[in-house]
Specification:
The complex is a heterodimer of chains A (about 500) and B (about 1000). Chain A has 23 helices and four strands. With about 500 residues, chain A is mainly alpha-helical. By secondary structure, chain B is α/β, with parallel strands linked by helices. In chain B, about 50% of the residues lie in helices and about 10% in strands. In chain B, strand 9 and strand 10 form a beta hairpin. In chain B, helix 9 runs parallel beside helix 15, helix 18 runs antiparallel to helix 19 and helix 25 packs across helix 30. The longest helix of chain B is centred in the middle third of the chain and has 33 residues. Chain B is globular, with a radius of gyration of 32 Å. Classes of the chains: A mainly alpha (about 500), B alpha/beta (about 1000).
Chain lengths: ~500, ~1000
């Protein structure tokens, strides 16, 4: 037993890997067409439950080892890639923050996997759901246990994709897919922040490892810029202002996914990231004060919105957001232990509440007490709270629509330029009316056709008569494309992008 | 001007709203879910006609998807003869097809039913004129535009037309806010903070909020603020104003209002229900409020949308003219919505429409001919494919053909003579006929078997009165197999005791009787030991208050919330773990702990009236009323002599965790509640010496050796809860012990039978294993199918148990006991039909419609349901209010109309149906199928709404097995009836 305990920590990398392996196997089964009918369901659900249980047991073993041998701290398992200045490493940071949170999340993951097995029985996306759930369970453990920012980023992305796929679980419903898209786009802002910070880590610190980052003694100005990316990522994932709207629109998935993603686990990922960065936050009181402010504002926002909600899931999501915002306040004030304990207990209670949301009729008996009278009669505030302070509409206008417009432009670019340029099979047209046998489409095809035409023309010219007008035509075409490009650049969004790009270069 | 018209408009609007009501779901708040015919409002029409009307108005599918019927045909559940018979009954007139070698039209229809429907593409567009390659595209486009504007679903909805042309839903931006306002106004106890202006009704509340809403600015509708401020305070005037602006032609207002209301049928239906039941909430609710808002938005938003589409805001009439004048633009936009274009044309169409968004575009007319050709080619290709499939099927039916162009056209036309509605009707008739043959054959065989037996029989050891519920058929059958000396009866599960019941732990009284009955009596349960009850009530109240605090304050209290969360976090995870690993154990253990803490208090129902009625409610029954009720019930079920020493009244209910639709699983005869208290009250009444004396005076002599006892059966976990056993006098102790054992064994055997339809249950479980499985299901919050409810219900027998005893009926039949012999004038069967007919038909038809179109008539899958305002469920956080049954309840249901078989002379039944309008509607309009078994001769008749009673002559041989278990072991699907040789008395 002692031997097992002593070496338990060396196997910690299996914890996030089990669920990912399960996801891989389910994916293979789906690809091989082994997922039809009732008989295929138990294999899938048991696989995910078993992987989640294995992760949980692994963590419990490590926890036991901690009781005996103390905190393991930073452990590097494997070098992924490296250059002389910095390295991508598979490393874990096992301390008083990561292990309790990871164990709580693993327990919740296992419970939700078991819950979903019968809840989603015969649901059209049964196997897809479990695949995504397993991806998420793996991803969140990378985030929590990861010993460097790169690993955390990988986990972060896995969680983001899983969340998007589960909001769109009923993708046939336009509301569900629209909301999933909104959440996806909003979350990209956080990813951008994370990437930004990663880049600065590589540039200024020369390492992604947390301990090296904490001990880097960067100038405070640099540190502030570096931290900012992480903070934005954390604010987005935990749906703090001004990124709150996406969480209210994320309730389209099956009840268990609402529970684990937005009630219990994923929404705490941002809090966790802030807790992880506490050593840096401690050096920057202004950033910490910013967290307090944002947390307090979000708490007020969530409380007001929560009061007017008339469906269980929305009501619970704002209640969750309220307490998550309090955690940000606590972190800003430096009360990290309180925030960690609050995080774990809050996750536990919200799992229960969300999973039992359909029972609300029998769990409660009376209408809750009305709000204080100074509030109850404020018509404008009521309207604002009911409309969630118009943030989702604003977010859509500021982020969603420009993104969709860029996507539209890209499609137009593809249809108008890339497709004709590359050419499509079977669409060849005669390059020259007089020579219908030479057919080509796309740039390569036309180039070849031109080449042959050119050679022939040389031949003709040498042998027969004067010059053709191809040079003129080519100039005209180039002029046309330049005009199009100019028109595009005049569009405000590209102007903005150009300005932003300039800023990035200057920074 | 408005002033003198207002009363007139008010009157017309009232008429319109009551017309509209027919098409809206009439579902009560979900706590009181009671089964009813989804199309109850159309019940005055014949079945097929009503379904056609509902299809036209709502766009919902009203018959099962043909693919399901074809699968049933492939599985032998519908035969070719069934289809031919159905075609003869409901198809168009038969005839020869010229030049096709004596081919009958009916053969073509048969082949077309077996291959695929002839309609092309979206059924919405089936009625549009077909395109031809030859004609002028402008004319054809104009004809299509005209037809589209008159098509059902489009003719009354500017929004649909706009959506068709632009692909953009004008409501998309405001729907969410509208639903939030609706939910907030209707809320019954979820929201903490409610609209300050709610007291004036929905319209006033919306107006107060919408006037301050900044969303209009964000949606680029800034002008609408002024319009909202100028709206009149009276919703009626506002509605009239908006309608007049929308459409000057008043004759079409009703159609427009209908279309507006049916956009969100769930919400509109709930508005109407609450309007009809004002006492159920604390705010005024009226459907007209919602319609006024909706009509106002329709006008504002659609005008704005026409501006985006055409460059200038148009009125509805101008909008119609615009596209009449621009056939090219119409055709291109229409083609984008219809689809089916070839790739190049599709890309060109999509490109042009995208380029035209928000700016001037040309090139419509240049593209139109190409679009027309492409659409036409797609239709022609579909025709060719369809014809090939039809010929293939005809060849399989033994009629190989190689038709020329004329014959091909005629074949297509013949097949198209069966439209979608008629096809569904014919499939349904064939499907019903097949099952009906099986059921009637089973009855005939059983009658023949009983006919040969001696009339003397052993005295029964006990008599058990069950609910008529189809789920109890299994329990009864197993009980009779296990204890052949037990006699069983079936009756509506409120046992003739219509009452409001208030148990010692209940805060208020609830009605336990069919939903159409308003009870005049209230029965209260009184604790036998006041001191102990004080303690119990105090502790119970404390526990509930803490629970309330925990759930509500962690939701909204800024200070107490985090503290309570911290307290509850760890126990919640522990409870989830325990509940996940051993749900049944956790449920038992927590019930035990609760009892330990609160203590148990024996209590008695106060059945006797002591004071006069107050507010029309009398507490307890007077002696006369008691005798009346017991006598009426005993005569109804035909139990007037030959009493056994024990008569058990067995009420039923169903409890499950985490299930907003819980009351849909409970006893339908008790308004979606547990029928146990009714059974208990009945037993109390029937045991009273005064009642016995009264009964004796009326000719029902219950011997002193007979004791009535009561129990409640939980159809979800198959347990039985026995009432008042500690007070049982000694002489009956042994008999009760024996019955408890027998019923327990029967329930376990029944659990085994239920397991066969549950995918996660073992296929061949032992009795105890099966019991554990169903107990786990009931206690498991993760279980979306705690039980399967009434799924597969298909028939109802009204007659003596001898008719059906010894038949395996697969839990598909409502069994109602009735003795036809003493009932010369048919008074008893009349009251049974009146009470049980609508209940059974309501259940069967709700299951029918929720199955055939689970998206529109049902409420979809439970997994994304979100309880809203304590009155309904939405999908996610932003959808229509979902009514009807969830998919998990109906997935194995076989949608067909209830076959009611009555053991009584057909002539007598005809007279009853003729004098009862409710039955006239159900039977005459074919919402149920009726058959009769002559109680004397045993002949069987089938009722046809057009031709009256038809003698039934078929007789298939039935499989014979020793016990039920031999027939169902290892089978997962629906099973045909079988004769059971064991368990006969």
């Amino acid at each position: 037993m002692n031997e097992v305990l002593r070496h338990a920590v060396d196997w910690i990398w299996l914890v996030p890997l089990w669920p990912l392996l399960a996801a891989l196997v389910i994916g293979l089964r789906m690809l091989l067409g082994r997922t039809h009918g009732d008989a295929a369901e138990p294999a899938t659900s048991r696989l995910v439950s078993a992987a989640a249980l294995a992760a949980l047991l692994g963590l419990l073993l490590v926890d036991l080892a901690v009781l005996r041998y103390g905190w393991p701290g930073h452990r590097a398992v494997w070098d992924w890639f490296g250059s002389d200045a910095w390295q991508g490493r598979l490393s874990f940071l096992l301390d008083a923050l990561s292990l309790p949170v990871a164990t709580t999340f693993a327990l919740i993951g296992w419970l939700v996997a078991r819950f979903s097995a019968s809840y989603l029985h015969r649901e059209p996306g049964f196997h897809r759901f479990f695949l995504v759930l397993a991806l998420f369970l793996g991803g969140i453990q990378w985030v929590v246990l990861g010993g460097n920012a790169l690993i955390v980023f990988v986990g972060w992305e896995l969680c983001g994709v899983a969340s998007f796929l589960l909001i769109a679980h009923a993708w046939q419903r336009p509301t569900a897919s629209g909301n999933a898209l909104f959440a996806f786009i909003a979350n990209r802002a956080g990813d951008a922040g994370l990437l930004f910070s990663l880049g600065l880590c590589a540039l200024w610190v020369g390492s992604f490892e947390w301990p090296q980052l904490f001990a880097s003694h960067l100038p405070l100005v640099d540190l502030r810029v570096l931290l900012l990316g992480f903070v934005v990522a954390g604010l987005v994932k935990s749906a703090q202002l001004p990124f709150s709207p996406w969480i209210g629109r994320a309730l389209e998935g099956p009840t268990p996914s609402s529970a684990i993603f937005y009630g219990a686990v994923l929404i705490h990922a941002g809090v966790y990231l802030m807790l992880r960065l506490q050593p840096l936050l401690g050096q920057l009181p202004d950033v910490a004060a910013g967290l307090v402010l944002i947390g307090a504002l979000t708490a007020g926002y969530a409380w007001l919105c929560g009061l007017v909600q008339s469906d269980v899931k929305s009501s619970l999501i704002f209640a969750t957001l309220f307490q998550v915002a309090l955690m940000f306040v606590a972190i800003g004030l430096g009360w990290t232990t309180l925030a960690t304990v609050h995080l774990c207990l809050h996750a536990g209670w919200r799992t229960w509440q969300f999973l039992l949301a359909p029972s609300w009729l029998t769990l409660t008996r009376a209408r809750p007490a009305p709000p204080p009278s100074w509030l109850a009669s404020r018509q404008w505030l009521y309207t604002a709270a009911l409309q969630r302070f118009w943030l989702d509409r604003l977010g859509d206008i500021l982020i969603g629509q420009p993104t969709r417009a860029i996507a539209g432009d890209l499609r137009a670019l593809e249809a108008g330029f890339i497709d004709p340029a590359i050419g499509q099979p079977g669409r060849g047209a005669a390059v020259d009316e007089q020579r219908p046998l030479v057919r080509a489409d796309g740039l390569p095809g036309r180039l070849l056709a031109r080449l042959s035409g050119f050679l022939q023309r040389i031949e003709n010219r040498l042998l027969l008569h004067g010059r053709g007008g191809s040079g003129e035509r080519m100039l005209r075409e180039a002029g046309h494309w330049l005009r199009t490009l100019e028109a595009l650049l005049e569009e405000p969004r590209y102007l903005m992008m150009a300005v932003m790009a300039t800023f990035v270069v200057i920074l | 001007m408005h002033v003198d018209r207002a009363p007139d408009f008010r009157q017309r609007l009232a008429d319109w709203l009551s017309h509209l009501e027919h098409l809206l779901p009439a579902q009560a708040p979900i706590r009181d879910f009671v089964h009813h015919n989804t199309l109850h409002g159309l019940q005055h029409l014949p079945f097929a006609e009503a379904l056609r009307a509902a299809q036209a108005a709502t766009g919902a599918r009203t018959y099962w998807d043909e693919a399901n019927f074809r699968a049933a045909h492939a599985a032998g559940r519908i035969s070719r003869d069934d289809l031919l018979a159905a075609l003869a009954e409901a198809g168009p007139p038969d005839g020869d097809i010229a030049g096709a070698d004596g081919l009958r039209r009916r053969e073509v229809w048969l082949a077309s039913l077996l291959s695929a429907p002839a309609a092309y593409g979206d059924p919405d567009f089936a009625a549009l004129p077909r395109l031809t390659a030859a004609g002028d595209w402008r004319q054809q486009a104009n004809a299509r535009w005209q037809a589209l504007c008159e098509a059902p679903g489009y003719c009354a909805s500017w929004r649909r037309l706009l959506q068709h042309l632009s692909g953009e839903d004008v409501l998309a931006g405001v729907h969410t806010a509208l639903k939030r306002h609706l939910a907030a106004h209707l809320d019954l106890g979820l929201a903490v903070w409610r609209n300050p202006a709610r007291a004036g009704g929905f319209y006033a509340a919306w107006k107060a909020s919408a006037g301050l809403d900044l969303a209009w600015e964000l949606d680029e509708l800034p002008g609408i603020h002024a319009d909202i401020r100028q709206l009149p305070d009276d919703p009626l005037l506002a509605l009239e104003q908006s309608l007049r602006a929308l459409l000057p032609d008043e004759n079409r207002w009703l159609a427009w209002l209908t279309a507006l209301a049916l956009e969100l049928p769930g919400w509109a239906g709930m508005m109407r229900w609450r309007e009809r039941h004002p006492a159920s909430g604390d705010v005024p609710v009226a459907l007209v409020d919602y319609l006024a808002v909706r009509a106002f938005l329709e006008h504002g938003l659609c005008r704005e949308a026409t501006r985006r589409l055409t460059g200038a805001p148009l009125d509805f009439a101008e909008f119609l003219d615009y596209y009449r004048a621009c056939p090219g633009e119409f055709l291109v936009r229409h083609a984008l919505a219809v689809g089916g274009l070839d790739e190049a044309t599709g890309a060109a169409v999509a490109g042009l429409c995208a380029a035209a968004a928000g700016r001037e575009a040309s090139g419509w007319d240049a593209l139109a001919p190409q679009v027309l050709a492409s659409l036409q080619a797609a239709e022609a290709q579909h025709d060719a494919q369809y014809l090939a499939g039809l010929l293939d099927t005809l060849a399989q039916l033994g009629r190989p053909l190689s038709p020329d162009v004329r014959l091909a056209g005629e074949l297509r036309q013949t097949a198209a003579a069966l439209d979608a509605g008629r096809r569904g009707e014919i499939w349904l008739l064939a499907y019903e006929a097949h099952y009906r043959e099986q059921i009637l054959s089973a009855l005939a065989s059983n009658l023949k078997r009983h006919a040969g037996r001696p009339a003397t029989r052993l005295p029964p050891s006990a008599q058990v009165v069950f609910c008529m519920d189809d789920r109890e058929e299994g329990t009864r059958r197993h009980l009779e197999e296990i204890a052949p000396t037990v006699e069983t009866f079936g009756a509506a599960g409120f046992f003739g005791i219509a009452m409001r019941w208030r148990g010692i732990d209940d805060a208020t009284a609830t009605a336990l009787c069919p939903v159409v009955v308003t009870p005049q009596h209230q029965i209260d349960e009184r604790p036998c030991d006041a001191a102990r009850w004080q303690v119990h009530a105090g502790r119970r109240e404390r526990r509930l208050r803490w629970r309330e605090r925990l759930y509500q304050q962690t939701r909204h209290a800024p200070l107490a919330g985090p503290l309570l969360t911290a307290l509850a976090g760890a126990p919640a995870l522990a409870a989830l773990t325990a509940g996940s690993l051993a749900p049944a154990w956790l449920a038992r253990a927590s019930a035990r702990w609760r009892r330990l803490y609160e203590g148990e208090v024996p209590a008695e129902p106060q059945v006797c009236a002591t004071a006069p009625a107050v507010d029309g409610i009398q507490h307890g029954f007077s002696d006369i009323e008691q005798v009346d009720r017991v006598e009426a019930f005993l005569r109804t079920i035909g139990l007037t002599d030959g009493f056994a020493p024990l008569v058990l009244m067995l009420g039923h209910g169903s409890h499950s965790r985490n299930n907003p639709h819980a009351s849909a699983y409970e006893c339908g005869a008790c308004s979606g509640r547990h029928g146990g208290p009714n059974a208990r009250v009945f037993a109390w009444l029937a045991n009273r010496p005064a009642v016995r004396a009264g009964l004796r005076a009326r000719g029902i002599a219950i011997p002193d050796g007979t004791r009535f006892i009561a129990a409640g059966h939980d159809t979800c976990d198959d347990t039985v809860d026995w009432y008042d056993l500690p007070d049982l006098p000694a002489p009956w102790q042994a008999a009760v012990d024996q019955l408890v054992g027998q019923l327990g064994e029967a329930c376990r055997a029944h659990a085994v039978e239920r397991c066969r339809r549950l995918a996660s249950a073992p296929l061949r479980p032992g009795p105890w294993q099966a019991r554990r499985h169903v107990a786990g299901r009931a206690a498991d919050p993760a279980q979306a199918r705690p039980e399967l409810g009434h799924a597969t219900n298909a028939a109802a027998f009204i007659g003596r148990r001898a008719l059906s005893r010894g038949l395996f009926l697969d839990r598909r039949v409502f069994l109602i006991s009735y003795d036809p012999l003493p009932d010369d004038d048919g008074r008893i069967v009349e009251s049974i039909l009146l009470a049980a007919g609508p209940v059974g038909a309501g259940i069967a038809l709700e299951y029918y419609f929720s199955t055939v179109d689970n998206e529109r008539f049902g409420c979809g899958s439970k997994v994304t349901h979100n309880l809203t305002g304590l009155f309904g469920v939405m999908d996610g956080a932003d959808s229509d209010l979902r009514t009807g049954l969830p998919w998990q309840m109906v997935e194995i249901h076989e949608p067909m109309r209830l076959l009611v078989v009555v053991e009584q002379a057909p002539a007598l039944l005809s007279a009853i149906v003729a004098r009862q309008p409710a039955l006239q509607e159900l039977v005459g309009n074919a919402w149920i199928q009726l058959a009769a078994v002559d109680p004397v001769s045993g002949e069987i008749f089938r009722h046809c709404p057009r031709r009256g009673w038809l003698p039934w002559l078929g007789a298939q041989a039935l499989p014979r097995v020793a016990r039920s278990a031999d027939w169902f072991a290892g089978e997962r699907g629906a099973l045909a009836p079988a004769l059971l040789l064991g368990g006969e008395r």
